[in-house]
Each structure stands twice: as structure tokens, then as C-alpha cells.
Amino acid sequence: MAAIGLFFGSSTGHTEDVAYEMKTEFDKLNPELVDIHNIGATSVEQFMSYEYLICGIPTWNTGQLQDDWEFFLPKIVDADMTTKRIAIFGLGDQNGYGFNFLDAVGLLAEAFLEKGADIIGLWSTDGYQFNESLAEYEGKFLGLGIDEDGQPELTTSRIKQWTVQVLKEFKIQQEVVS
Fold first, then answer.
1. Hey, what domains does the chain have and what are their CATH numbers?
2. From CA 114, how far away is CA 157, in angstroms rounded?
3. Cα separations in angstroms, 124 against 16, 24, 139, 140, 146
4. pLDDT of residue 1
5. Is residue 39 within 8 Å of 76, Cβ to Cβ?
6. Does residue 20 sit in helix, strand or coil?
7. In 3D, which of 77, 65, 84, 93 has the Cα closest to residue 9?
8. CA-to-CA distance for 178 and 173, rounded, in angstroms?
């Protein structure tokens, strides 16, 4: 088993594509570092077996959780996540849905924080134009924001930068470089 579990929910395939692009970046550093899973086909035991988690979610409709995550979260309602370090990335459309851009990232972060998890991988809101977001906290998103509709040309560079940031914040950078 790898050190990091990367779990994604995807209804249209965009979040899945980003998750696999992210895995490719991690594989360049160490191909045995990250296991990737579709949350819709994941057991609670499988999810909870990782200390380091990366969770990908699109904001669905007008600020809602993606269906697979909405179905999965109640299964971990009694979980103790005090030993978990979690990084979140989300997809949204800041132009079409500027009043709930990346809301699902905020909802997912809130659910994990309530269970005692440590959220890492916060990302600056600079370079985005939106009105409101449940994912925003003190000028940062509670995870990486990807906008494949309005800023697809920034996706790859954002993923590359964020994966390095996440490894440092997980404090497993030394294991990767050694």
C-alpha cells in the first residue's frame, strides 16, 4: 500500500481526469507514493487505512456535493480522523457559478474537520474571480481550485505546484527525495 490515498468523485469525468493527472505528477517523484481510488467504489476500511489522504470533488449543481461523496460521507460519520492529514482539490466554474465556486471543497473540509482531521494544501484565491465560496478562508481556498471551464490553461501548472506543496505539508518529502 502506498503512503497516500488519492480519492475522487466524478460525475462527468473531469475530476477523474484531474486526479489521474495529479497521480502522474506524484509518480514522477515516486511511482509507489500514491494509490488512486474512485470514492464511489471505496469501502470505509480502504479509505481509513491511509494516514495521508487527497480528496477530489467537483462542486455539483449550485454548491452541492458530488453524488458519490454525498453517499460516502454518512458512512464515516462515527470515524475518528484525528490522525489523518487531508488535502482537497476541487473543480468548479467561477464564471458560471461565481456565487458557489468550489463550495463542495468547503463542505468536504468541514466534514473532515468535524471528525478531527488536519486539512493541509490550502491554496491562494489570487487569480480567481468569484463572488462567494464555502471553500474560502482568510484569502485561501481549503484546497486546490481547478476551473476547467474558465482557466483550463492553468490546470497543469497548478497541479504541479500543488503536488509539491502537499508533499511538503504531509512532511513525507524526505521519503520521496531520499
1. 4-177 (3.40.50.360)
2. 31
3. 23, 23, 6, 4, 12
4. 79
5. no
6. helix
7. 65
8. 9
Q: Give the model's pLDDT for residue 130.
A: 94
Q: Which pTM was predicted?
A: 0.94
Distance of alpha carbon 139 from alpha carbon 31, whole angstroms? 33
| Sheet containing 140-141, strands listed edge to edge, beginning at the edge strand earlier in sequence | 123-124, 140-141, 136-137
Distance CA 118, CA 81 (A): 8
Decide if pLDDT at 178 tops 80: no
Tell me the C-alpha distance between 137 and 88, whole Å. 14
Instruction: Specify the amino acid at residue 31.
Output: P
Angstrom CA distances, 126 to 27, 49, 120, 129, 160, stand at: 28, 35, 18, 8, 17
The DSSP line for 73-112 is GGGGTT---TT-EEEEEEE--TTTTTTSTTHHHHHHHHHH
Round to the nearest angstrom and report the end-to-end CA distance of the chain. 19
CA 6 → CA 2, 37, 38, 87, distances in Å?
A: 10, 6, 8, 9
**pLDDT at residue number 176:** 43
Q: What is the mean pLDDT of residues 169-175?
A: 71
